[in-house]
Design a protein that fits this description.
112 residues, mainly alpha, two-stranded antiparallel sheet, 5 helices, 2 strands
């Protein structure tokens, strides 16, 4: 069963944040980066997104609880919020396959 804090309002906020090409690319890049995360400058360079636009998209992902931020000296490090991502995936797949065991449970969560 999905984590109880993942209510429909949280799901809608998360999906709305991801329903933009640039934000989806940013989030996926942070997932690939894993727990080490990335700085905004590294994300901007990697994805070819202007820094001011990237700042807006990171803010939207942060407000949707999909990313975390940590200040490290003069830099801010962004990471994918893996527990929230896993809760979202669990919510979306809770009743998949009409209650039968799904064939690929490993895809439904990340242990990062």
């Amino acid at each position: 069963m999905y984590y109880q804090s993942m209510q429909e309002a949280n799901v809608i906020r998360s999906l709305s944040a991801l329903a933009h090409e640039a934000r989806l690319r940013v989030f996926r890049a942070l997932v690939v980066a894993g727990p080490e995360g990335l700085t905004p400058s590294a994300l901007a360079e990697q994805l070819g997104i202007a820094p001011n636009a990237l700042s807006f998209h990171l803010k939207e992902l942060f407000h949707a609880d999909l990313v975390t931020q940590e200040r490290q000296g003069r830099n801010v490090l962004y990471r994918a919020a893996f527990p929230v991502m896993n809760d979202l995936l669990a919510y979306l797949t809770e009743n998949c396959c009409q209650g039968a065991v799904c064939t690929n449970d490993a895809v439904a969560s990340c242990e990062c």
